[in-house]
Design goal:
alpha/beta; 6-stranded parallel sheet; Immunoglobulin-like; about 270 residues
């Protein structure tokens, strides 16, 4: 047996002297084309889950609303993933635990269901998608009712959302809500969900929380035939309600508004 042949066999067995001086042909690759395709397929299968949205339950958010007794009000819920809106989710609506049926959320994540209102009062609206539940509030009022609107960030907050509300505000809001339909207004940069959580954590009276939207909320209520009985808020909110001829109250100096010293004063003025 030649020296080089011996070296070739040593190479195939994994051993070879580096000083032999023999030119030995490169070993044939052990992988065939079919094997390479199988490996590529396995790698792709492992990578796909990293870039595919998880099938975890969608978060559900229910928007609050105000309606007149006897009105067909459109309820709205939104399905959201961990980061992005999730459309195509089946959502079942409930009002006071009575099912209204199911609808698919659209590409924007929004799902709608109409509800015919009856007796005035607060209604618990619930939306269920997969294993997630969202809740909101529907306020049903008599035609022509006068609504009291409270600017949360402009009048209830004191030093940010990490702190409780202004002294006396909890009791005053509860007293006002017993005599007049009440709504809260979200006016700042903090989203509706965060403001709603703060109200609940501080045990404020349950009532719809509506986006102020530069005063558009007052126009929407007026279109339903409702009056703006009073507005308690900051300068921008007060000014946006002027044309509705409502009583105006503020803890800041605002033209056309009564300046409040404390919340107990407001409760006395709205008796």
């Amino acid at each position: 047996m030649s020296k080089c042949l011996s070296e070739e066999r040593q190479r195939d067995s994994g051993f070879r002297s580096p000083d032999s001086g023999c030119r030995i042909p490169a070993a044939k690759r052990p992988y065939t084309l079919a094997a390479a395709r199988i490996i590529a397929f396995i790698c792709l299968a492992l990578l796909i889950p990293l870039f595919t949205p998880s099938p975890s339950p969608a978060d559900v958010f229910v928007y609050d609303a105000v309606a007149v007794s006897g009105e067909d009000v459109r309820l709205k819920a939104e399905t959201r993933g961990t980061v992005f809106i999730r459309g195509g989710e089946l959502v079942e609506f409930f009002v006071d635990d009575v099912s209204l049926g199911k609808n698919l959320s659209g590409g924007d994540g929004a799902a709608y269901r109409f509800y015919r209102t009856s007796r005035p009062g607060l209604k618990d609206v619930r939306a269920v998608s997969r294993n997630s539940i969202g809740r909101g509030t529907l306020l049903v009022v008599k035609p022509g009712s006068g609504v009291v609107a409270v600017d949360v960030e402009g009048t209830l907050l004191q030093g940010g959302f990490m702190n409780p509300g202004r002294p006396g505000s909890l009791q005053a809001i509860e007293g006002v809500s017993k005599r007049h339909p009440l709504i809260y207004l979200q006016t700042g940069d903090t989203n509706v969900k965060a403001v709603r959580s703060w109200l609940a954590e501080n045990e404020y009276t349950a009532a719809p929380l509506l986006p102020w939207d530069g005063g558009a909320v007052f126009n929407d209520l007026a279109k339903k035939g409702l009056k703006i009985r009073a507005v308690i808020g900051g300068p921008g909110v007060i000014e946006s309600a002027f044309k509705h001829k409502s009583q105006a109250f503020s803890f800041e100096p605002v033209k056309g508004a009564a300046r409040l010293k404390n919340w107990k004063e407001l409760e006395e003025k709205l008796k």
